[in-house]
Every structure is written in structure tokens, then in C-alpha cells.
Design goal:
The complex is a heterodimer of chains A (405) and B (312). Chain A is built from 18 helices and 13 strands. Chain A is an alpha/beta fold. In chain A, the strands form four sheets. Chain A has a five-stranded mixed beta sheet. In chain A, strands 12-5-11-13 form a four-stranded mixed beta sheet, with helices on both faces. Chain A has a two-stranded parallel sheet with strand order 1-2. In chain A, strand 1, helix 1 and strand 2 form a beta-alpha-beta unit. Chain A is globular. Helices cover 70% and strands 1% of the residues of chain B. Chain B has a two-stranded antiparallel sheet with strand order 1-2. In chain B, strand 1 and strand 2 form a beta hairpin. The two termini of chain B are 38 Å apart. The chains are: A alpha/beta (405), B mainly alpha (312). Chains A and B meet through helix 2, helix 10 and helix 17 of A and helix 13 of B.
Amino acid sequence: MRSGSGEEDFFNKAIDLFEKKNPDVKVSRIFVPGGADYNTKLDLMVAAGDPPAIYAPFSDRGYRYYADKGLSQPLDEFVKRDQVDLSDFHPDGMKGCMWDGKLCALPLDLWPHVLFYNKTLFKAAGIPSLTTDWNDAAWTTDKYLELAKALTKREGDTVTQFGSDVYFNYWAAGWIFGGDFLPPETYETGRVKAFVGDTDPRVAAAVQWAADLILKEKVAPSPAQTQQLQAGAPALFMSGKVAMSVGNIGSLSNFAKIDQFEWGVAPVPNPPGGAKRHLHVWIDFWSMIKGVKNLEGAWQLMKFMISPEAQQIYPISYGPLRARASLGPDWLKIQKSALKLSDAEINVMVDGPKYEQIDPENWTVNFSPLNSKVLQPALDKVWLGEATAADAIKQAGDDIRKQIK
Amino acid sequence: MGTLGRESTVGRKRGPGRLLMREHVAFYLFASPWLIGLLAFTIGPMVSSLYLSLTEYDVITSPKFVGIANYVQLFTDDELVRQSLKVTILYSIGVVPLVLGVSFCVALLMNQRIRGVSVFRTIYYLPGVISGVPVALLWMWILNPDFGLLNNALRIIGISGPKWLFSTTWVIPSFVLMSLWTIGFPMVTFLAGLQGIPAQLYEAAEIDGAGPWAKFRYVTVPMMSPIILFNVISGLIDSFQTFTPAFLMTNGGPANASLFYGLYLYNNAFKWFNMGYASALAWLMFAIILVLTGAVFRSSIRWVYYEGGMRR
């Protein structure tokens, strides 16, 4: 399980409960920092022939990495035998659990993206609170830019308050106006086989728009300004010097500690001209590796970890959305007691996944290396003002096609 | 070790062959911890890495033999190999002479007989004992384009500083500048060398009418040349293996402008788990360092002077 993000206590609590209910079972817990360390540890355990009973990768290299190599333990038989009701889980979560027609994982949690905003700064500028309606057609990126300009304060050449945080500055920027770097079938097959970012004009326009918030409009901080303003805080928004910040709800546990200003939650703006919003939700999964020593015990543990009882502890008490729709009211109740937000604002987060979809990092087996080797370095040049989005994406497209070949 | 063996056997009146054998056994027994370590942790992994470089290997499935495909790919079809080599070579060209020159000059200063010189020596050496992570964090602040110490200092004299780590042009010069932080170790070796130069050589030069520059040129530099050779080689090897600052401060960015070879190798091994390809990259790095070191050694015949040695 992942450590370092304050989640250990919640995982331990859930597993303690499992052990209490199954007194003859003892679960060894291994905590590893998320990301590369987690992947390395898991790989070494698999290579040593001693995989963990269950695991949740929490990184851009999900369980599909193992499923693609034929190493994931299919769960169909267990689910059928124990009549586990999967209809309660988020549809995209369930879609992400299938690999080559087999159920190889079960959804753990969801981290939708929303807009956090500093209500204190809004009030000071005489701007009313933002909508809480995901379908509000007037809430667009044009309006966002207008507000960002109004909320940015300058003293000479120095910006003392930014209207916007860095909007998406990775592949997700290409989605802002509804486009995508990859064709739709990528999300069916789980393998990147084509790149269409340079043929869809919405992609370059969206990336340029996000970069121009920093370079042209100067309403969002550059990476250097972010480094200075953030000053070691977990998120730039917590500095109180940024009016609006798009991010996922993983920040909630940190934002709950904010006592210097009032903040709120709104949907991520729509693209201009009535186009459909394209936004992603991070989804985590529990999965099993083939060859686990106590297969039945591992399944019982996994079944428990996705049960409403365990999901009450993790993810609900920790922060991310539960994978089960039926636990929505419980999440709402817990967050209401922890955060000073209205019901409507909390519902923005609860409803988020309805308007968001699974992302290429979470879903495909080969996007992450393509992204870190080619796409992200190309996009870096746009944010540095050293290339236009159109040129950078065209160059990336040529290189990615070569790599795919 | 040898003496003990001799004493213990003489009393028993054993033959010289047996004595020699006992000495050999004792030698290997005492050397065995190091030999086992060398075999298990250096030679073994090297042989294993050589084999893996001929395979496709992701750690969790068995290595698949692919012949020289990894080498073909890295020589012909990997733009990032060329980019990472370019970054590393540019960095080495900047950092090796700079660190060498500055540390030599500082060592000359630290070799003066002035009051409190030991305090200055400690001050110059101290940064070298701080581990990589805090140093990286410190330099990120120093090099911040908007609020960093360096650009603020430049602003005072009317210069608008560059974006340093946030610029594809300036990121490598930033790392070169940062390398001055590590002059402590070469400075100490230079200092030790300077203090080992016999005073009579300078006295003889003075009698021959040599001034300070002539003494430096014809006594100090030749006498220091073995130390210079050592520092050139270790500096070259260090610069080719640069990893920590790039990993911590830029992660190879922006736009791969600081993608050091060591970082690219690490990414292949531990980010994308292409262990076979990463092993091929490691062997290419080994070959490059071997060739460069060999070239420096070969050139040293012309410029390194060993006291008592013959110049060929």
C-alpha cells in the first residue's frame, strides 16, 4: 500500500477490522511511497515469486502493466461465485477494471477534478461566488479568463496576487476545449496505437490558451513564481495568493487546514462556444497478481476492501470519493463535518465523475513512457514560450508515431 | 602477515614449499572478504549487466534474448540517447576545467602561510560534506529567476539575469555554476600536493633567478601534474555520472534540456523498467568513460611529470 500521503492509518484501520472479523487470518502490511518506489517494490516481489495478496498501484503505471503481461489474476470466477454486486461501482471505474475481456481489478477510489477558489479574494474584488452547476453553460473558459484578469493584482512589474493557478500544464491541457491527443479507441483497447493531437485543432488551441495564462495574460504564475509563492506548502492555492486553482480532490485533506481565508468549490469551466467539456478523473484499483500464495485469502481480503464497510474507512474518511455510488451520502456527511463548504459545493465533487472520464495514464499500458519521453518535453517548450502549441504538438506527433512504430 | 607465518613455521622445521603454501592461504583468507565483495557486488553484476544488455528484460518476466538489438537501437534510433550525450558532454566540457581551475587557485591561496588559514580551508571544504538533497534545494532558491539570490545580485549591478533552471539555454550553465560547490575535494588533493613540493626546488629556482611566475610555471605546475591528472580523470568520471542534481532539480527538463545520460539510464531502468536497454546504456557509458580515461592517460605522457621518472 502507498505510504507518505497520510493514508497508512486508514489502510491499517480497515485491515484491522478485516483481521477482527477473521481472527484466524493475519495480514502483513507493506507500505511503500507511491510512484517509482512502489513500482520497484512490487516488481521485485513479483520477480521473487512472492507477490502481495492484493495491491493498489496509485500511480501512472496501473495494474494493466501486469495484466498486459498476463500476470493479473482474473477475478470473474470469484465475483460470480460470491455474487458480488458490481452495479454499485462507478461505470468508468468498472470499465477500467476490465482487461482483454477479463475482470482483473476492482475500483478503490476516484479523484475527480474541480475548481477551488478563494472566496475571500472574490469578495474583496466584489465578484460573486461561482456556480455549483456542472451544466451552467455561462461558466466557460472565457469567463474564467475574465475573472482571472479581474483578480490579478500587480505592483509595478511584480504580480502580488494571481487570478489563476497554473491550469493543466501536462497532457490534460489538450483536453480543455474538448479535444484529445489520442483517438477514442485508445480507451477501449488500452493501447496507444495512434496520435491525433496534431490533427484536432482544439488540442493546440487549448494548450496555447493554458500557456498564455502565464505567458501572455500573466494571470497565472510561471514555474519559478510558483516555486517562490508555494514556499514548501503542499499546494500553491494554500498560499492565499491565487484566486482560482483547478485540481483534484486529493488536496482536500490539506485544504481542510486552511484558516487564513474562506474557499469554495466550483465545476471546471466549459470550453467556449457550447462545446462539450473533456476532463479526467483519477481512478485507483485493487488488483491481484497470479501466483499469490493464499489465493482464497487474498480474494477475501480484496472483497472486504471494496465492501461498503471498508470503504467507509478508506477512501471515504481519508478524502477521495468512494468507488461505490451508494456511499455518496456518507462521503457527503464526513466532508461536511470536516470542510466549511455548502452542500451544493460538496455535491460539485460528488457529481464530478459524471462529467469526467478515465485518463490515458490510468487506462493505457504505453502512454506514460510516450508522455514522459516525448509529449511532456514538447509541451514544456510551450510553457517556456520557446514554441507555439501547434508547432510543439506537431513535432511531438511525428516523434510519437515513430515511437509507436 | 608474512612475518608471522615465517616465525610459526621455522620452529616446526617445515620445508619452504609448505611455508609458501601457508603464506598463500593466509593471504587469500585475509583478502577473501574483499575478493568476495568484488565478485559478488562488482564483477558479478557487471557480467549480469552485460548479458542483460543483450536481452529485453522488465524484471517481472524472464529476460528475452534479442542479440545486439538494444545496441542497434541506442546507436541508430533513439533521439534521447543523442540528447542525453549532448547534455552530458556539454556539462563535462564546462565543469571539468572550471572545477579544476578554481580548486587549484583556491588551493594555492590556502597554501599561503597566513593566520587562520585552517579556518578558510575548512570553510572551502565544508560544502562538500553536505549531501545532495539539501544542496539541490539550496541552489533551486539561489537560481530562482524572480526571487533568487543570484538574479537579485545581478539586478543590483543592472543586469537582468536569465531564467537559469527554467530555460533550455541556461539550465546546463546553471549546473556548471552549481558544480563550484564541490571544489572542496579537489582543493584538498591539490593542497596536499602543494605541501609535498620540496622547498629546495623553489630555492634552487630562486638562485637561478626565477620570479614568482617562473617558479609557478616551472616548479609548481610540473610537480602538481600527477595530481592534476588524477583530478581530471576523477572529474571526467564524476561529470559523466551526474545524476542527483538533475533528478532532484529539473528531472531532465525543461524540454529534456538537462536530460543527463545518467538520468536517462535511470529512467529506462527504474521508471520504464527497460532493464535490458538500460544495461546497454550503462555499457555505452562505461565504454565512453574508458576511452576518455585512456585518452587522458595517453596524453599524460606529454604533460605529467613524475618525480624521479623519465619523460618519454
